[in-house]
Amino acid sequence: MNLLVAGGGLQGVEAAYLAKKAGWQVTLVDCKEKPPALGLVDRFVCLDIVEQTASLPGNIDLVIPALEDDGALAALEEWSHKRGIPFAFDSRAYTLSSSKLASDRLFAELDIPAPPYWPQASFPLLSKPDNSSGSKDVRIIHNEQELDTLLAGHGQGKEGVLQEYLQGPYYSLEVLGSPGNYKTLQVTELEMDSSYDCKRVIAPASPAPDHSSLFHELSLKIASALKLKGLMDVEAVLSPKGLFVLEIDARLPSQTPIAVFHSTGFNMVVELARLFGFSKLPDLKQSNPARTVILEHIRVGNKSLEVAGEHVMTLGGPLALYYDFFGANEALTDYEPGKEMWSATLILTGANLLEIKEKREKVIRQIMDHCKINRYRETVPVNPVKR
Predict the structure, then answer these.
(1) Which of 93-102, 120-129, 333-342 is the least confident region?
(2) Cα–Cα dist 27/32, whole Å
(3) Is residue 256 over pLDDT 60?
């Protein structure tokens, strides 16, 4: 299988990593000369997809887009269809899911529980752009004064999301399939840093059985309404008021596919290929029961080790895959001996959460000792009490 991954950022890392685990040949295309996924692929072509579509490489069996640029996505889809190459992406579902406002309108139509919007919502409020992914420009609004300041700064014509901020554990769940044939995958738990960027994924998550069943049910309902063909990620929060769906992304996500792979053996990239026509791919061994996995991001430098959101994985050079990295089962990292500033995604597996937390403590200690570090830092979202 010759896979073209378009986009070498964090989604591209996910796609390339899982494709290599399946033994595939991977070609990466990106407009940047040294994207994070560069160290994980067999061939790299640096070009602008929109401006240089004719220069995209040949001998490709499947295309997986791993970017969020509308122009590049449209150009890539047209190029794929003209050459008869399967394009593992649902453009229509992606367009709706990339708008938080449009997604929430769909939730309302389907009676999907979601955080209420202002002015029906109570303080604290969460403010974020309509179509920005991740934690970019996320703010917590505590009171009327802060709200007035925010609205004055935005002006009257700028649309954005302003809804109730619900506290509780965060969960993620992927849905894969096509109309009439969907499957939900493993629920994972997401832990955030102070900027609301995911710093750690735990698989499997352990919500109460009734809430877990509800999460699967709601996710299937959304996928069916979208008539999804492909993969969709659903995020939810379990607050004291109940389970609420926060957002959906009809694309290959980052972080959770690798965690699910190490926990269950389920490779989302391979299953995407099956869905888009490659029915003769060999079955992959899946774990039963699931192993426990912690996937987390660290940044080392200035005599400190910080556990932080996945944005730190874009601060250095291309990532390489290491095995038995200071005791971690695997790591994706730009680490080199003697390098002062580096980042790593640590992947640790074990039989249960207690075992894996003990392993994690040893890994962190070994890294700190090796790098002569005496400061450990890990932030969490600030408790937004009313003021």
Answers:
(1) 120-129
(2) 14
(3) yes
CA-wise closest residue to 10 among 266, 309, 313: 313
| β-pairing verdict for 2-6 and 62-65 | parallel
Residue 308 sits at the vertex; the CA angle it makes with 306 and 159, to the nearest 5 degrees, is 150
Question: How many CB atoms lie under 10 A from the CB of residue 364?
Answer: 21
In the chain the domains, ranked by start, together with CATH numbers, are 2-94 (3.40.50.720), 115-164 (3.30.1490), 292-378 (no CATH)
CB 268 within 8 A of CB 299: no
Q: What is the mean pLDDT of residues 55-75?
A: 96
What are the backbone angles phi and psi of residue 251, rounded to the nearest 5°?
-165, 170
Alpha-carbon distance of 17 to 323, in angstroms, equals: 13
Amino acid symbol at 147: L
The two structure tokens encoding residue 31? 């407009």
Task: Dump pLDDT digits (tens) for 200-221.
Answer: 999 999 888 889 999 999 999 9
Sheet holding 25-30, edge to edge: 43-46, 25-30, 2-6, 62-65
pLDDT exceeds 90 at position 366: yes
pLDDT of residue 206: 87
β-strand pairing of 43-46 with 62-65:
unpaired
- pTM for the complete prediction? 0.94
C-beta separation of 112 from 263 below 8 A: no
- Kind of pairing between the strands at 125-129 and 43-46: unpaired
pLDDT at 157: 38
Burial of 181 (0-12, 13-18, 19+ CB in 10 A): exposed
For residue 387, is pLDDT > 50? Answer: no
117/141 Cα distance (integer angstroms): 13
Contacts (Cβ under 8 Å, ≥6 apart) of 313: 10, 13, 36, 297, 319, 332, 343, 345
